[in-house]
Amino acid sequence: MKRVLQLAFIILAINLLACKKQERTIQSGTDIIRYHVEHGSITTIKEDERIVEVKINDFVSRKALAPIFQLSPGAIATVDGVVQRSSVSKLDLTKPVKYVITAEDGKQAEWIVVLKSNSFEIGLGNETTEENRLERAYDWYIPQEYTGELSKFNSGPVVVKMAAYWSNVLHLVDFEEMRAWIDAYKENLKPSVPASLPFFTSDLGYYLRHISVAHEYVSILNNIDRLKDFVDAGYISILLVDMQKIPFNIYPEQRTGKIYKGRDNTTDSRYVIVKGYKVVDGILWFEVYDPYSNGERYKDGTLKGKNRYYSAKSLSDATVDHWPYCIVVAPKPFPVEGVNGLNPHFIRQQAGN
Asked: Are 113 and 97 in contact (CB under 8 A)?
């Protein structure tokens, strides 16, 4: 009898569990609850309009991003009929993308995801009317502070190596070997030139020619806007600037101006690479790789010298009385064309840390 009662109890429990499973509510939610992309700063979800807006840095490629998202319980997301998996499925977000969210009960809703520039948050302004930048599928930024015991003098060697990487020239020589080659080359010149810790503007040309990177020396005297034309032509530019003329930005998460105060009444001669530009609220800004990050990073982990923005006016002020030229670099295997290149032997040379 006891065994019969135990069996009856087990059957009753199974039936109760089955009933509970059958009573589970079929979900009908079609919402995007959370949405994030790499390097995105602010996400705004407009539930009534079913629009998701993500603020993102302009220099981040939007062609193959894998968004992280959360949907209503039980819902699935598709784009052009393809099921999307959070943090896995990659999308081209260069233009607005339409998601179809399907609930468990079959109800559907369309959502639009839009990526927008975070220009205002990083200190540039509101309305962008022009922009262009020269990117690579690989990371070619090198921070100066991690280049050995002579790192404080290495902005010259660093921009040479960055330019070589960008130009698709495989260059594996370390900075000490680069310095040794320059010193030996200058010693063999007639008349010979003494070695120096800071790289002279002529040293950059010697070494770029040595590793077969196409380049030209060009005047930017009273014509800093030429850098914009070079970017549009597909060229990066190496500048030697007096960083004392670049304004210091007191806001740590903005990306305009330099990251350190510097010393008053002294010249701070450093090399930078101009790789892009933006016109925001009528002001021309140049997108720069500044080797001097000083180990500082933004909250997203990016080194602060990478993709910094210096205004055209501040770059003009920093070069006009310092070294009003630039070295224009072309991608391999193309030459630099249409820039009215100058003979470097007839240009006043200047040293930079």
From this structure: yes
Q: Let me know: does 30 contact 75? Beta carbons within 8 Å.
A: yes
Q: Could you tell me which CATH class the domain 32-117 is placed in?
A: mainly beta
Tens digits of residue pLDDT in 272-294: 999 999 999 999 999 999 999 99
| Domain spans, the chain | 32-117, 128-352
Instruction: Compute the half-sphere exposure of residue 262: CA atoms within 13 Å on the CB side of its CA.
Output: 19
Distances (CA, A) of 311 to 194, 246, 252, 320: 36, 9, 18, 14
User: With 0-12 CB in 10 A as exposed, 13-18 as middle and 19+ as buried, what is 88?
Assistant: exposed
CB count in 10 Å sphere of residue 277: 23
Q: Centre a 10 Å sphere on the Cβ of residue 59 and count the other Cβ atoms it contains.
A: 18
Give the ranges where the chain is alpha helix by DSSP (H): 2-23, 155-166, 175-187, 201-210, 226-232, 312-320
**Cα separation values, 318 from 63, 200, 225, 269, 329, Å:** 35, 17, 14, 9, 21
Quick check: 262 pLDDT over 80?
no
Whether 52 and 114 have beta carbons less than 8 Å apart is answered as: yes
Q: Which DSSP state fits 248?
A: B
CA 235, chain centre distance (Å): 17
> 128-352 maps to which CATH number?
3.90.70.10
The residue type of 91 is L
List, for residues 237-258, the tens digit of each pLDDT value.
999 999 999 999 999 999 999 9
Distance CA 98, CA 299 (A): 30
